[in-house]
Design a protein that fits this description.
This protein is α/β, with parallel strands linked by helices. The protein has helices at about 15-35, 50-60, 85-90, 115-120, 120-130, 150-160, 170-175, 180-190, 190-200; strands at about 5, 40-45, 70-75, 105-110. The protein folds into two domains: about 5-115 and about 170-200, no CATH class; about 115-160, no CATH class. It has a four-stranded parallel sheet, sandwiched between helices. Strand 3, helix 3 and strand 4 form a beta-alpha-beta unit.
């Protein structure tokens, strides 16, 4: 089956081309570890969350009958119902209208943000950042997806502030993403488990 996945990530501006390449590469490596190498979807790094939705709508409208088109975005807020993706996006915070014919399994979430994926894999963090990583500054793994995105992001910035390669959005964030272990993410993050289940079914 042909498939396309629109990714939130890769900033706009002068360095947007490089960042979008790195975004695609980070997600590609993560998906390869999920054993999708022989059925990898086409990956599009779209920049902002709103731009990702716009690109998804175009892809959805133009897709072939048997093609799977989805977007993978931050949920921004904790999910009330893991499976009710369009209900979440229809709330006042987003107020996004579901495209005609779209289904919940066309929306994959990083709950509440990409940094939640990163802080969930402590072994990958320790390997990437080394001895100066302040593990005690990271949020507990229990109910990690219930934590506000700004709290998760601030904790990751704080935990790596003494490291030579301190965490930063953009190139460095995608470097860490590429090192994450899917089975570890699935143990701690229901949204990642859902994304993997859907991709197993649709790819």
């Amino acid at each position: 089956m042909s498939a396309a996945l629109y990714l939130e990530g890769g900033a706009s501006g002068a360095d947007s081309k490089e960042l979008r390449i790195r975004c695609r590469e980070g997600f590609r490596r993560l998906l390869e570890k999920c054993r999708y190498t022989g059925r990898m979807p086409r990956l599009y790094a779209c920049g902002s969350r709103g731009a990702t939705f716009d690109d998804f709508k175009t892809g959805h409208a133009e897709k072939a009958v048997d093609e799977y088109v989805a977007m993978w975005i931050d949920s921004e807020e904790p999910l009330a119902d893991l499976e009710a993706a369009w209900d979440h996006l229809g709330r006042p915070d987003d107020n996004w209208t579901k495209p005609s014919g779209a289904t919940d399994d066309q929306v994959l979430f990083m709950t509440t943000c990409m940094e939640t994926l990163i802080v969930a894999d402590r072994a990958a963090l320790a390997d990437h950042y080394g001895a100066k990583l302040q593990d005690s500054a990271l949020p507990p793994l229990v109910n990690l997806e219930s934590r506000a995105r700004h709290d998760v992001q601030d904790a990751l910035f704080h935990a790596t502030r003494s490291c030579a390669n301190a965490y930063a959005k953009g190139r460095r964030s995608f470097e860490v993403l590429s090192k994450l272990t899917p089975n570890t993410l699935g143990r701690h993050l229901p949204s990642f488990g859902r994304a993997r289940r859907i991709l197993d079914e649709r790819l």
